[in-house]
Amino acid sequence: MTARKTDKGPATFEESLHKLEQLVERLEQGDVPLEESVRLYEEGIRLSKLCAEKLTEAELTLKRLGKDLEGSFTLLDEEPGE
């Protein structure tokens, strides 16, 4: 599955994280007007949630990744114990 940019912003984890880092740097400079600071903060929260969701998805995929007897990795249908 190829990540694509949408109206909601960056499509990949790396793009989202980079944008979040830029927002933090801008806010840390301390010369941003209040209204823009609030807007940047809101966008930062959205990007932070997006990054957390992408990390959770990756973690779940890794937990479901199994190794067969030949040493090849396969994606398991269910998590163990289900």
Helix fraction, binned, reads 55-70%
- Oligomeric organization of the protein chains: single chain
Q: What's the story with the biggest beta sheet?
A: 2 strands, antiparallel
> What is the mean pLDDT?
83
Q: Kindly, what is the distance between the CA atoms of the first and last residues, rounded to a whole number of angstroms?
A: 26 Å
In sequence order, what are the helices and strands, one letter per element?
Answer: HHEE
Number of strands: 2
Radius of gyration: 18 Å
Low-confidence stretches: 1-6
- Strand-pairing-aware structural class: mainly alpha
- The tally of helices reads 2
The rough form would be described as rod-shaped
Strand order of the largest sheet: 1-2
In terms of DSSP E residues, the strand content is 5-15%
Q: Give the domain tally.
A: 1
Report on the architecture of this protein.
This protein has 82 residues and is mainly alpha-helical. The chain has one domain. 57% of the residues lie in helices and 7% in strands. It is built from 2 helices and 2 strands; from the N terminus they run ααββ. It has a two-stranded antiparallel sheet with strand order 1-2. The longest helix has 31 residues, at 34-64. The protein is rod-shaped and about 60 Å long.
